[in-house]
Amino acid sequence: MPSSAAAKSAAGLDLDRFLPYRLSVLSNHVSDAIAKIYSERFRLSIPEWRVMAVLGGTPGLSARDVAERTAMDKVQVSRAVDTLVRAGRAARSADAEDGRIQRLALTAKGRAIYDEVVPLALHLEEVFLSALSPAERRQLDALLAKLARRAHLLVVAETA
Amino acid sequence: MPSSAAAKSAAGLDLDRFLPYRLSVLSNHVSDAIAKIYSERFRLSIPEWRVMAVLGGTPGLSARDVAERTAMDKVQVSRAVDTLVRAGRAARSADAEDGRIQRLALTAKGRAIYDEVVPLALHLEEVFLSALSPAERRQLDALLAKLARRAHLLVVAETA
DNA sequence: GGCAATTAGTTTCATTTGAAACTATATTGG
DNA sequence: CCAATATAGTTTCAAATGAAACTAATTGCC
Which bases of chain C come closer than 7 Å to a protein CB? Predict the structure, then answer.
């Protein structure tokens, strides 16, 4: 019965069971909750915070490095860095060897914000994860790792 | 040792282990891969596809209903519906009882697209999920349900 | 050494987005 | 019944976004 199978498959798209949809809604809710912390208290946009997050952990990166690690594009990074520098939260310095590159780092002011936001972000993550038992957290970690690997393969394959 | 604890927590934000970041990257990769299917083949934007996805399953919804089910805002829905109607893929009809409401549904043309996209979307979902065993899929389903419930609570709590 | 091709980063411009204002209809309290 | 309030949906306007063009520095190749 091919025709009834086709009808069934079309009727069968239940958004609440559809993985891409579930992931998107969940991710947006989590991001929004976190964004609230830093946008309200520190006047930071999401891209700005992402840049600060990597620079806080690894100072001296170039803009390209930051783009790579945050999965942002270079235009976004450029603009976020610009805003951070003008706010005195990050600084650019010339690279000794390559004149095209700028080494980026948080200023003392930027680091002070970083040191305040990080515990808040980790706390909120903990609030989320406290919905799960330790065993479930390990499961989640493993599942996300597998899915991320698969997703990465697909994206790369499609682009190539 | 409060100061060393603070220093440690700040140093401890590893993006690759940070749940909000992992979810965001994964979700974007999955959405991008799916978006490719319908944007290229059918000239559909993501909001347009979301509207079609709910109307395909449940015709006769109002714009507000659609917004609720897709987690989109009403402006986005209004614009997506407008585009769909102008493309002859969806139609509005007056509600018999409430003059403010428009009942939305796919046209034959819209349904033909829906019936083509749904199997493609389900197939791609299956490709993603094939990274997991049946037992792992059940785990994922349960974990996402718990996290979604928790996330929903947080978002509602913050807004209130 | 010097010209072509790359790479880092910025700028420009058209499109997308979302908040707030607006129109039109419906409901509620007096 | 009618004024005040609420709801459905659209429009407007300013800000965010991303693709493509651009500038500047570097590398590779002959």
Answer: 7-12, 16-20, 24-27
